[in-house]
Design goal:
The complex is a heterodimer of chains A (200) and B (162). Chain A is an alpha/beta fold and 200 residues long. Chain A contains eight helices and six strands. Chain A folds into two domains: 86 residues, Double Stranded RNA Binding Domain (2-Layer Sandwich), CATH 3.30.160; 91 residues, Winged helix-like DNA-binding domain superfamily/Winged helix DNA-binding domain (Arc Repressor Mutant, subunit A). In chain A, 39% of the residues are buried. Chain B is an all-alpha fold. Chain B has one domain: Up-down Bundle (Butyryl-CoA Dehydrogenase, subunit A, domain 3). The longest helix of chain B has 22 residues. Chains A and B meet through helix 1, helix 2 and strand 4 of A and helix 1 and helix 2 of B.
């Protein structure tokens, strides 16, 4: 079965995308981008960045957004343009601090307190789950803090990779440990390899 | 974590509706209003769908839902065109792009001249290859009425083509 000209379909759907954005019908716009830690899904509401998904999460982040925020979701590079630009600069070591509006609606009250605290851990530094727990006023809640950090819907931009175990072990990461290690190495918080460590 | 597909009933991201059904909706509209008007009707259909989407109760038969909206927009377009008859000539356009109508431009132009219900039924049945029960649901008529509309439409077309 042949189809109507695929280019014609692309052209009309492109116009739908533009008009949806212009007429305020787009609740969530998203786009993907290739990075050194794989393809990332970047999604924003009108208020700001709402979700970053790792490649292995597949379609799950969009399904979750559809159920929890709104199904009015379209691919929209324009909506996430600034976020993607800053992420690109971060990965090329040209940006140390993200300056993006964030939409926290996927995060509960406790999680927000934890992640806002995490967002203040400076580039290239690490802190322990326990430190964060003390700072948010729940010194014995390191595990709950760990869960909140693990549920971070905006990894990289909210730098949960900078939270590690007290003993120096990396701890967990929603995107998998190799990615956490990569990000910390990128920021110079870990020696990249034995040779770099020797020469440095 | 394993890959998740939408469970029955949940609304998928609207983008997926575009990915899966834009071609079908566009083909249907081309069969109904011609290429020239189909683009605008497509915009109106998808924006209306996007506007109403969060209020939809379940995600079953989304293609049928989109075609229902497309049908309404096609009817609107005909009403508008009827008020300015001069533009009707321009509205027929090049419907050769409509699959599977490819060589049958003349036939599909005749389809466009059928009464609304017959035109829609014939379009859904042959341009979209939809079964009668779906045509019935899309047009809010009985299956018998859907069959009758297709039958009468075809009969009329045969007469015209002689």
């Amino acid at each position: 079965m042949t189809t109507i000209d695929a280019a014609a379909v692309r052209r009309v759907t492109e116009r739908v995308r533009e008009r949806a954005l212009a007429e305020g019908l787009l609740d969530i716009g998203y786009a993907t981008m290739d990075t050194p830690i794989g393809r990332l899904l970047v999604a924003s509401t009108r208020l700001g960045l709402v979700r970053i998904g790792f490649e292995d999460e597949g379609e799950e982040p969009l399904v979750e957004l559809s159920a929890r925020v709104s199904p009015r979701i379209l691919e929209s590079p324009a909506r996430v343009d600034e976020a993607r630009r800053q992420l690109e600069r971060y990965f090329s070591r040209g940006l140390r601090r993200f300056d993006l509006p964030l939409d926290w609606r996927l995060v509960g009250a406790f999680g927000r307190r934890v992640l806002r605290r995490v967002a203040r851990v400076p580039y290239g530094n690490v802190e322990s789950y326990g430190d964060v727990a003390v700072d948010v006023g729940h010194p014995r809640a390191a595990r709950a803090v760990g869960n909140a950090v693990g549920a971070n819907p905006m990894p990289i931009v909210v730098p949960c990779h900078r939270v590690v175990r007290a003993g120096g072990a990396l701890g967990g990461y929603g995107g998998g440990l190799p990615r956490k290690r990569f990000l910390l190495e990128l920021e110079g918080a870990l020696p990249t390899n034995p040779e770099a460590a020797r020469s440095g | 974590m394993h890959a998740t597909r939408v469970t029955a009933g949940a609304l998928p991201p609207f983008q997926w509706l575009l990915d899966e059904h834009a071609g079908a909706v566009l083909r249907f509209l081309v069969s109904q209003v011609g290429t020239a008007e189909a683009d605008d009707c497509f915009q109106e259909t998808m924006l209306a769908a996007l506007r109403a989407y969060p209020r939809l109760e379940h995600g079953a038969n989304l293609r049928g839902w989109l075609l229902t909206i497309a049908r309404r927009k096609a009817v609107d377009s005909f009403r508008t065109a009827a008020r300015r008859p001069a533009s009707l000539d321009g509205a027929t356009g090049d419907i050769a792009a409509a699959e599977p109508a490819a060589p049958d431009t003349e036939l599909w132009e005749s389809v466009e001249r059928l009464p609304a219900k017959q035109r829609l039924s014939v379009g859904l049945r042959f341009a979209e290859d939809r079964p009668y029960d779906e045509i019935a649901r899309t047009l809010s008529i009985s299956q018998d009425a859907a069959r009758r509309n297709v039958h009468e439409g075809i009969k009329k077309l045969r007469r015209q083509m002689r």
